[in-house]
User: Fold this.
Amino acid sequence: MTALFALATSLLWGLADFGGGVLTRRMPALTVVVASQSVAVVVLGAIVVATGGFAEAGPRLWYAAAAGVVGPVAMLSFYKALALGPMGVVSPLGSLGVAVPVGVGLVLGERPGLLQFAGIGVAVVGIVLAGGPELRGAPVQRQAVLLTLTAAFGFGAVMALIAEASTTVTGLFLALFVQRVTNVAVGGAALYVSVRRGGRALPEDGGMRVVLASLPALAFVGLADVAANGTYSVAAQTGPVTVAAVLANLYPVVTVLAALAVLKERLRAVQAAGAGLALVGTVLLATG
Assistant:
């Protein structure tokens, strides 16, 4: 069950990242974050009301609120790092956030078997290579590296926090709702500050018409991200966090394959090797 839910997480996060990346080519990144998460808030709010989830309110929701604060900061750091580039350095470094939940699991006393340790190592190498690391070329700006490491730590922290935010299904819906409300609040505040400083909230070409036309895609991105957090929480609670975290972090492979299939991007040799190693690591983790 742990492997199944963790792999579902990687699929959902990979597709959400792909969709978010495509949308940021049409509109500002902050607008994509706020709009997609706003759709998620509406849907989750309805689910929480329907399931009576507010009765599950308790101290654990502080973990969800913290995840809601950290998430937008990590996402915006990652987008800014991608803008500074090169993507072949930023993307693999961003995937190193897996070290946070894995480290938490080890500190809490989890001790994977030998095959699982081997699987963790192979899968992490595969995740990094799947991003297509650039080992030669122009020097990377120090700011890009610092922003990417900030984003990686943030992504890993969100995984660790959301896994602690609930112990029941209805409680999980409430935790995800709180996380998304916080996401919108933090992202909305950042968007407001950006506009006050001369930034744009709407696309230069098309304005609000483009945003409205993109609502189905924005909804998919927001809901896929929510679903991924939910499946990861279940995976982390039903099995070792060390295994769940690594399998869930296979999402860069999904993003790369989606770009290959939809955008017809060419798969570099290092990315193909990374995808293969990630698959081997997955098999070792699932059978270990």
